[in-house]
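Supplementary Methods S3. Complex input for the 3-methyl-2-oxobutanoic acid-bound model.
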Amino acid sequence: MTTVRDLRGKAGTEPITMLTAYDAPTAAIVDEAGVDVILVGDSVGNVTLGHETTLPVSVEAMAHHVGAVARGAEDALVVADMPFLSVGVDEKASIENAGRMIKEAGASAVKLESGPHTVSLTERMTQLGIPVMAHLGLTPQHVNQYGGYPRQGTDRESAERILDLAVAHEDAGAFALVLEHVPSNLAAEVTAAIDIPTIGIGAGPDCDGQVLVFNDAVGLSEWSPSFSHQFGSVREEMEAAVDDYVSAVESGSFPAAEHSYEERELDDIY
Ligand code: KIV
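Predicted complex, serialized as structure tokens:
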């Protein structure tokens, strides 16, 4: 079973792999491939629940998906993403919501989209035994403030803000840091400045690890960001299989004799 300590040990020596998953069979595939960390991202909102953004995802929905992933994974570290406004509004509710992911759903850690408001929260959660993965750069829960999903840390002032926040979250006890959609030279600078592993998405090759959304990585998404890469064509495979099924039922070739069973004892009746 991968632990937060194992990740820290890998940082700077071996690349860390992380993928999202939202259900048990996908978690089993990712786990069996030897991926270190499975993130049950709040991207479940747009990737599998049909929402436009991650904002409508509830704590209940997250706990439901985290439970499925925790049942499907054996070795990977399962990290639950905390949905919009489930943390940061008030400390007690934040800790209770994060605690549910560990106590009820079976995650081993939580991820918080981070900012100045999550520094003391990260410290408190860590003290209480809730390991925290921080997330800086593009934080998609700010979509309405950004007016989209633009690259972050592109000028000196905002790059320094990200660097300072990375150090502050490490000092507060975060065990790892996701850096999303930032210039690769900034990600390299952050990675050199802190000892906890950085895990990049759209952040270049110099992070300690990489994360992608599962559906983007396997080629199941209709659209994926330019910093992602399709390592397969699962959507085409699924479309072909469904087309074949429809044709087989319509032509009468399915079900065939081998898919059916006749009970001899009923011969007298029917
Ligand atoms: O929700 C998510 O899937 C994420 C990753 C893209 C880092 O936050």
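The longest helix spans residues 234-251. The pocket of 3-methyl-2-oxobutanoic acid is lined by residues 20, 39, 41-43, 81, 178, 180, 201, 211, 213 (CB under 6 Å).
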